[in-house]
């Protein structure tokens, strides 16, 4: 059995008190929200080159990436490593703004006393920063 949601009363609270909008059909609200969502557009992240490097001594890793986009971007890198200890797989996620075309060290990760063996998995994405001038 489906509930009957053919209409309901929409009420909002403002600085002037309660505002009553009358009965609004659920379909009308759904359509309005769908239309508003379509106007906003979707954000899109691009995959970018990255390196999760085990440094000499095998207890420290450097996480670096390159912003290959045409403009400055907000970038995020995740690296997960295997160590010599069973079920010890340190993972780190680093995020920061990166200038266009630049390679930067995002962060470093310590192994927690065990030696790093290899990179298990990793990924990096950048999303171009918006320009307030609309360019």
List keywords for this structure.
four-stranded antiparallel sheet; three-stranded antiparallel sheet; 135 residues; Immunoglobulin-like; 2 domains; mainly beta
How would you sum up this structure in a few lines?
With 135 residues, the chain is mostly beta strands. The protein is built from 1 helix and 9 strands. The protein is 11% helix and 51% strand.
Describe the structure.
With 135 residues, the chain is mainly beta. The protein folds into two domains: 8-40, no CATH class; 46-128, Immunoglobulin-like (Sandwich), CATH 2.60.40.10. 11% of the residues lie in helices and 51% in strands. The chain is built from one helix and nine strands. A four-stranded antiparallel beta sheet has the order 3-9-6-7, with no helix packed on it. A hairpin with a 7-residue loop joins strand 6 (73-83) and strand 7. The radius of gyration is 24 Å and the shape is elongated. Residues 5-41 have low confidence and may be disordered.
